[in-house]
Please model this.
Amino acid sequence: MNILYLLILLIITGSSIINSIKWGRFAQREHYLPGSVTRFYFRWVRTTFINKFLFFISLILFVISLWLYFVPIFVIILTLLTPLGISFNTRTGDVNITERLQRVNYLYYLFIVLISVVSYLTGYGYIFALLANMFSFFIYDQCLKILQSYEKNISKVYVNDASIKLNSNSLPVVGITGSYSKTTTKNVLKQILEQKNNTFVTPESYNNRLGIARAINENFNQDHDVVLIEMGTYANGEIREICSWVRPHIAVITGIAPVHLERMKTLENILDAKSEIVELAGSVVINGDDELLLNEARLWTNQKQVFDCSTTSNEAAVYVEHENDKHDIYIAGEYVTSVNGPKLLQLSISLSVGVLLALDLNINEYFSNLESLDKTEHRQNIIKSDYGHSIIDNSFNSNPMAIDFSLATLSQLGNEKSKRYLITPGLIELGSDQFSINYAFANEASIVVDEAIIVGYTNKRSLISGFEDNNIPSNWYPNRDEAVAFLNSIVESDDIVLFENDLPDHYP
Model:
């Protein structure tokens, strides 16, 4: 091999190492799930014609490079620049250079270098290295897979410390899960319990195994007398593993919806995954308006105390009726008390009262000095912009169940001069229902909004189709920054803007 081939080999190797910056961001934001980097890479490739075309061109150039030694340079340029839309700089939040991310990167570097060495020693020149460069996202995924068991094992000490700390006292532990309203329910319950109790609550984004353990190790202390833990899941078995050491006394399931349907395939699989929280609990508090949960609850009633909490039926164990920002609370059909708060909190208040019943607490005592309850940040909060117009901020964790509340709020605000705008990338992780649900979202929004601003490629076709079919003008921008810049150029002080959902920048 001459010096030129060796130089090309070194350049290819360096380029593959640089690509780890992109793949590490994918991996961290997808909780280091093996396969997530490849999945998101091809999601970007499928999104636009130009990305499909450039991927196809790179394959052709690879074949040509078997004969022309200078062609790999063009392949390297393509792999560094594509998929178009993904840059090496972050837009929606920095990547945390954690020890785990460093371990994945070091293993990835090792594989890339080894492939280059093998390519050199076997006399194939740069061919193997170039192939690794083109599919470096796949190699990064294999590193995640190799390290998965190791990462779980080394974190056991951290989880065990949290378990010992949490279970050193006999405190009531409430576990909260569901497809939607987990954080809102947790925060509403916290506001109620803190009228009389020192309540430990996991922070908003700390709802997986290591996040919960970290929150307990850093913030739980002996002065706490009740514990609220939010639990999320991407797959069957995750909540069961968390419950094995958290050991919730009361399990709360807010509802089952097609969130994460892309990963879990069916609503029944989602129900099974969420229901793992019930296995060790003595009492179960459920959304009594969810037929899937009600049917499943029949299996639990012989062994556990089940409280069905409703916003529609006064025959439920707990019923909360909302009118004019006042929530009337009924237990077994009997009026108990009232509390002020937006309609968005109706279900969460009902579930929270169910938890108070499960804890055998006096409802009136906890609500006697509680005049109103507040919403969680970025969940339909209404703020004034620097331009004077009103903003409804529902940018965090939007789901199909929250859309009605958002659109109702949008329709109620403003005056005859107001123009109503919607800025949204649509809803995600809905599997085969992705197009139809977002099309239905656009149809429903068309009743309220005067103009839509669509962000990103993920749901571009479905949203534009829905708005066009209802003669609602829509504008499309590749990212939120450009969409907001356009909005600010046309918005007036009387206007109302709904921000429904936001996507991290590893999404198309």
Q: What stands out?
A: The mean pLDDT is 90. Residues 157 and 163 are 10 Å apart (CA to CA).
